[in-house]
Amino acid sequence: MKRILFFALAALMVFGPLRAQKQNESYLAYINEWKAVAIRNQADYGIPASIIMAQALLESAAGQSELARKANNHFGIKCTSDWDGRTYKYDDETKNACFRRYTKVEDSFRDHALFLQKPRYAPCFEIAVEDYEGWAYKLRECGYATDKQYAPKLIKIIEDYRLDLLGKGKAVGKRHEEQTTGSRAKKATVVTRSEPIRVIDKDPDPEYKEPLTAFQERRQFYKEHPKKRQNGVRYVLANEGDTYANVAFRLNVRERDLRIKNDALGLELNPGDRIYLAAKKNKGATDYVWAEPGQTLWELSQEEGVTVKAIRKLNGFDNKVRVLKTRQKIWLRKVKES
C-alpha cells in the first residue's frame, strides 16, 4: 500500500506541472486583444462570446493563419453569392477556394455575426447563450464546418481558457484550479463594515421604468425618424448613434433583412444615411441620372431607391465597380432604342 501511495504522489508531482503548461501564450494574448469585440457582438447579435472567441482562435490559429494575416479573415468564411466585398484565393478543401477579405479584423468579427443571421443557423439562437456546448454542436449540425470534431474542439478551447466567463466581469484565461482557489480564498476573508446596515424598502425603485412594448418602441422610433419616400419606397434618415442592429430591434425586424433591403451587408450605418423600410425597386423614377463627383454605386442606389444589382445590370457594370466616374450617365430604366 505504501508503495502505491508513493507512486501516486510521484505521478502527481510529475504530471501536475504538465497540466499547468497546457495554455498557449499566443492564445492568451489573442483573447485579451479581442475579448471586448466578442462581448459586444454577444450583446448586439445574441451569439455567445465564448463561441465567438473559440471559433476565432480555432479558425485563425490565434491570428497566425494565412487567411488571418493576409485577408484579416479570422473565421474562415468563404465567398457566397451575396458577398460583394474583396476576396482572397486560398487552397482549402478545394484548390484556389474563394474566401472573404476584410480591411480590418473588426470587420471579420462583425461579418461573422451577420453570417450567422442566415436562416440555416436560426436553430442556434433557440439555445441559451450560456449553453456553449449546445451552440458548438448546433453550429456543426447546421453546417458551419465539415470537421466531425469541430464541436469538441470548440468546447475544449472554451473550457481550457475559461471563455465561458467572458462578459461576466471575471478574469478570462485562468485555469479552473486558479479560479476555484481564488474563490475559496475570498470566502475565507472576513470583511468588517463600519457603516450601518442598509434596510431595503419593499417598495419598487422609483426610478424603474416599464420597458416599451414592440408597438410603443416602433411608434417612438418614427417620432424620432420621420418617414420619407423615394421612388415610391419609404425610408428614414439615420440619427447619431443609430446602427442597423438597434434600428432593426426598434422596428422589430431581423437585422439581416433590413441590411438586404439597403444593400448594406457588411457596411456600417452613418448619420444621414437612408434606411429603406421596404425593398428598393428594380427601376428608377427617371430614365437616367448623372453621377456626382466621388459618388459610389451604393450611394447612388440609396439616393434613387434602386437596387445595386439593378443598376449594375442596366449599365453593364461588373462586381468590381464601386466608385462612379464624375458626370457619368447612369441608366435607371431600360430605354427602348428608337
Write up what this structure looks like:
The structure is a single chain. By secondary structure, the chain is mostly helical. The protein folds into 3 domains: 25-176, Orthogonal Bundle (Lysozyme), CATH 1.10.530; 214-276, no CATH class; 288-331, Membrane-bound Lytic Murein Transglycosylase D, Chain A (Roll). The protein has helices spanning 2-19, 25-45, 49-60, 66-71, 105-115, 132-141, 150-160, 176-188, 214-224, 244-251, 255-261, 297-304, 308-315; strands at 87-90, 97-100, 228-230, 233-237, 274-276, 288-290, 329-331. Strands 3-4-5 form a 3-stranded antiparallel beta sheet. A two-stranded antiparallel ribbon has the order 1-2. Strands 6-7 form a two-stranded antiparallel sheet. A hairpin with a 2-residue loop joins strand 3 (228-230) and strand 4. Helix 2 crosses helix 3 (49-60) and helix 2 (25-45) crosses helix 5 (105-115). The longest helix has 21 residues, at 25-45. The termini are far apart. The model is unreliable at 1-21 and 176-206 (pLDDT under 50).
